[in-house]
Amino acid sequence: MHVRRKLVAGNWKMNGSRAALAELAPIAAAAREAAGVDVALCPPFTLITLAIARAGGISIGAQDCHSAASGAHTGNVSAAMLVEAGAKLVIVGHSERRQDQCESDDFVRDKAEAALAAGLQTILCVGEVEEERVAGTHCQKVLYQLDRSLPELRADAELVIAYEPIWAIGTGRTATPADAIEMHAVIREQLAARFGDAGQRIRILYGGSVNAANAAGLFACDNVDGALVGGASLTAEAFVPIIEAAAKS
Ligand code: 13P
Predict the structure, then answer these.
(1) 60: CA distance to ligand 1 center in Å?
(2) C-alpha–C-alpha distance, residues 183 and 100, integer Å
(3) Domain CATH number, residue 122
(4) What confidence score (pLDDT) does residue 132 get?
(5) Residues 72 and 112 in one domain
(6) In a domain, 189, yes or no
(7) Do 116 and 80 reside in the same domain of the chain?
(8) What angle do CA 92, 94, 96 make, to 5 degrees?
(9) Phi, psi of 56 (to 5 degrees)
């Protein structure tokens, strides 16, 4: 039996400002109360150092990194730069980057390798589009994507998987607990097949319109080890109840 601590991570996407960092104090207070739950927040790059100064026990991270350590990659940021800025984690392969920046599975795997090598906790995202779910090929799609994006594990940096069905992101539509149980189980099988016992310890987060009303139901599901939260991580009012639901699960 593998006991995995819940992880509740917020992804601010291209939102937030200095003023929004005022939300961190009540989020940090809730995180301190939530025994057994890890809480993390990934604001835009420009707010990382400011957020760290106000984080009070929450891990602060980034929403992307490049696979190279340095070089001619205008507009990009390397994993080493994130570490120097004080980041503890990074999200790679988010569907918005896979779509908007045409990121391939191979590139995402290289990013994940680079992030882990730099010592960052790395949240690797996978998920299917609505047409694939309707066609019943959602598990096949996610396992294919995972197979090609998975990095080698390292002893000194944690890999986390986030299952984020694209049709559920920012839409207010959430996977049902049955949907989440099905997908997280097949992801777990693949992780165990690939990494053996270490695959059982990898946390699998659910993401896609997670909120105060649906979080407890999702956290009760087998192999749902936390959440990657977008819109509801922008304010303490919306994010704290999700942290509390994780603590009660
Ligand atoms: P929402 O919670 O806004 O649906 O976003 C989910 C997400 O993409 C987190 O990475």
Answers:
(1) 17
(2) 25
(3) 3.20.20.70
(4) 96
(5) no
(6) yes
(7) no
(8) 140
(9) 45, 55
In a domain, 53, yes or no: yes
Residues 6+ positions from 171 with CB-CB distance below 8 Å: 208, 209
Task: Please identify which residue in the block is written with the tokens 């009012």.
Answer: 237
Residue having the nearest C-alpha atom to atom 5 of ligand 1: 230
What are the pLDDT digits (tens) for 182-199?
Answer: 999 999 999 999 999 999
Q: Residues 108, 221: one domain?
A: yes
Residues of the chain with pLDDT under 70: 1
Q: Whose CA is nearest to atom 1 of ligand 1?
A: 230
Burial environment of residue 87 by CB neighbours within 10 A (0 to 12, 13 to 18, 19 or more): buried
The confidence score (pLDDT) of residue 57 equals 85
Task: Report which secondary-structure segment, H or E, holds 244.
Answer: helix 236-248
pLDDT at 1: 59
**Is 165 close to ligand 1, i.e. is its CB under 6 Å away?**
no
| Domain, as residue range, for 74 | 42-87
**pTM, rounded to two decimals:** 0.97
Interval between CA 174 and ligand 1 midpoint (Å):
10
164 flagged as catalytic: yes
pLDDT of residue 146: 97
Tokens of 46: 């420009």
Check if 59 has its Cβ closer than 6 Å to any atom of ligand 1: no
Q: What confidence score (pLDDT) does residue 2 get?
A: 72
Give the active site residue among 66, 94, 138, 184.
94
182 alpha carbon – ligand 1 mean position (Å): 20
Residue 211 CA: nearest ligand 1 atom is: 2
Q: Verify whether ligand 1 is closer than 6 Å to residue 164 (CB atom).
A: yes
